[in-house]
Specification:
The chain is of the alpha/beta class. The protein has 13 helices and 23 strands.
């Protein structure tokens, strides 16, 4: 079976790369072992977690916030099985949509586990053990990532698990211990806390959300604690295991914690094991990342890599950009993805979003900058929806006024960051954003005001 391009991995990077290749006239195939396309993001990551976050947030609103609007709801309850079915339906619908997109673009879908087998060859092993060899001059490795489990944490897939298990609990745990205070731990911790679990978050660092702006993370911490998350910082977990029908988590210098379930949310690493890299002379680094050049070419001729299996943010939208850029580089010889301008979103409540540099990064790089901050409590739309927590922060170069970073905690932060990302990709200054007429009353006005505040000109703050 011969193709112009074979993509190993049907996640956001892989299927998007194949579709773009087909648009450019290539005969493309996607190799994926799972029944559903879409990768970790769609099957057991971004999409199902956001579905549960939305359902649990609606429950929270009905039980605690509707009364402020004069809406009285009695006897609020929920059906976990229905909630889970809705989540699964969302995933199934989107996965079916991807199948349709491949068919529409005449991309072949090859079911099985793909592995390099020398130059220009991919061997696909089906579930029944049958093997098929695909021949192609171009191969894209888009195999994504898998959860990292620290030494001492004994994952059994039942009581002690990763985000995969935490997205499919069949009952609300009485006490859930989350190991890791990053976005995965806080998002899924929020889901189960809203549904009635006692949630304890254990974080080794002295802060949550490492990598995000420290000021924003510091503002988020007391908000999450107020919501009921028991967040403990500076805690080193030495072991976690199931003991019968319960779990025990041991921490250095502290009393053991007994709980009903454990979620290990301690990061991810490239899923590049058993990919046959040695057959083409590719050497991954100690984390499993595959080195590539500016056009996503590996050290092996005709083999490219994108997404989570190369350095850079492990985010679905970054993988998609990689996929398009990689294929276009094959076609035209030019590719570019600015990893400094990849937005990140934490879908807690309030949401947290960021794009560009943090204050800490700019200080470390010796870049002089000005800062503009505007609180949502002064935004008319935020008042009308009764969601005034948080702020927008704009960081701009002290000399050129070019926007270097935007950080938001508050309502619809994940949507608002899109305007900032677009502006920064076009090299906008704080003044450029400030002079754009924003509709009133809307949340994006807070970004305009923060841009004005860079020069001390905020009107409503």
């Amino acid at each position: 079976m011969q193709y112009d391009l074979v993509v190993i991995g049907g996640g956001p990077g892989g299927y998007v790369a194949a579709i773009r290749a087909a648009q450019l006239g290539m005969k493309a195939a996607v190799v994926e072992k799972e029944e559903k396309l879409g990768g970790t993001c769609l099957r057991i990551g971004c999409i199902p977690s956001k579905a549960l976050l939305e359902s649990s947030h609606k429950l929270e609103e009905a039980g605690h916030e509707f009364a402020q609007h004069g809406i009285h709801v009695g006897g609020v309850s929920f059906d976990l099985a229905t909630m889970m079915r809705r989540k699964d339906d969302v995933v199934a619908t989107l996965a079916k949509g991807i199948e349709g997109l491949l068919a529409k673009n005449k991309v072949a879908r090859v079911r099985g586990t793909g592995r390099l087998a020398g130059a220009g060859r991919v061997v696909v092993r089906a579930a029944d053990g049958a093997e098929t060899t695909l021949e192609t001059p171009r191969i894209i490795l888009a195999v994504g990532s898998r959860a990292v489990v620290l030494p001492g944490i004994e994952v059994d897939g039942r009581l002690v698990g990763t985000s995969t298990e935490a997205l499919a609990f069949d009952a609300v745990p009485g006490h859930l211990v989350v190991i890791g205070g990053g976005y995965i731990g806080l998002e899924l911790g929020s889901v189960w806390r809203r549904l009635g679990a006692k949630v304890t978050v254990l974080e080794y660092a002295d802060r949550i959300l490492a990598g995000l702006d420290a000021d924003i993370a510091a503002e988020a911490l007391p908000l999450f604690r107020k919501q009921g998350l028991d967040i403990r910082l500076g805690v080193k977990v030495t072991s976690a295991k199931a003991t019968g029908s319960t779990c025990v988590v041991e921490c250095e210098g502290q009393e053991p914690i007994e709980c009903d379930r454990v979620l290990a949310a301690t990061g991810r690493r490239p899923a590049t094991d058993d990919l046959g890299l040695a057959t083409v002379g590719i050497q991954a680094d100690k984390r499993g990342s595959i080195p590539v050049d500016g056009q996503f070419r590996t050290s092996a001729a005709g083999v490219y890599a994108i997404g989570d299996c190369i350095p850079g943010p492990m985010l679905a939208h970054k993988a998609e950009e990689d996929g398009v850029a990689c294929v276009e580089a094959m076609h035209s010889g030019w590719a570019h993805v600015d990893y400094d301008l990849v937005p990140a979103v934490v879908f807690t409540h309030p949401e947290i979003a960021a794009v560009g540099k943090t204050e800490e990064q700019l200080a470390a790089e010796g870049v002089a900058f000005k800062k503009g901050v505007f609180p949502f409590r002064a935004n008319g739309r935020a008042r009308t929806i009764n969601d005034t927590t948080g702020k927008v922060k704009v960081l701009a170069d002290a000399t050129s006024d070019r926007v270097l970073g935007v950080h938001i905690i508050g309502p619809a932060a994940g949507d608002l960051i899109g305007e900032a990302a677009a502006a920064m990709n076009f090299g906008a200054t704080a003044e450029d954003i400030a002079r754009v007429c924003h509709a009133h009353p809307t949340l994006p006005e807070a970004l305009k005001e923060a841009a004005l505040a860079v020069h001390g000109q905020a009107i409503h703050g």
